[in-house]
Specification:
Elements (H helix, E strand, L loop, with lengths): L1 H11 L2 H24 L10 E4 L4 E3 L18 E4 L4 E3 L19 H4 L27 H21 L1
Parallel strand pairs: 1-3, 2-4
Length: 160
């Protein structure tokens, strides 16, 4: 077995052997990356818009961005029912990212530039109609990543 391995190593050192070896490595990496690409998460769907009336407008909200921990949230639907109406859906929330939770989508009032006034119930206008915050990485995932980073850094420092 060791003799066969030594023969293979000697063959790879030749131009022809190196070319074949490099071609196989490139093929394997290409297959791996194409499969990895298919596993990525997607952004959320845009919201639906429905109008039933004259001189009315409905705008569906944008879908939320994708992230490391799932798909983005779907945008809010909008229905303008009646004459001279306007309806707009909020943005979907962003999926959780590697180092933090996802950002919530923006409210239609924020998108349109309306002032963020406090409402009689104590909440704020921009809190209405927005997508929720995406989940973040677990505490264990963060600790594992920090451990791996510290291990890499200590290895780099000891190599100097």
């Amino acid at each position: 077995m060791i003799e066969k391995l030594q023969q293979y190593i000697e063959y790879v050192k030749t131009p022809e052997g190196f070319f074949i070896f490099a071609s196989v490595v490139i093929a394997i990496v290409s297959i791996y990356l194409s499969r990895k690409k298919n596993e990525t998460n997607n952004g959320g769907r845009g919201g639906n818009a429905k109008v039933n009336g004259n001189n009315s407008t409905a705008i569906g909200g944008l879908g939320g961005g994708s992230g490391s921990f799932g798909n983005g949230g779907d945008g809010g639907n909008a229905e303008a029912i009646g004459d001279n109406c306007f309806a707009m859906g909020g943005e979907g929330g962003e999926a959780g990212q590697l180092d933090r939770g996802g950002k919530g989508g923006r409210s239609p009032f924020e998108i349109l530039g309306h002032e963020n006034i406090q409402l009689p119930d104590g909440s704020f206008l921009w809190d209405k109609g927005r997508g929720g915050d995406g989940a973040g990485p677990s505490v264990q995932e963060i600790q594992k990543e920090k451990f791996e980073e510290n291990k890499r850094n200590s290895y780099k420092n000891s190599a100097r």
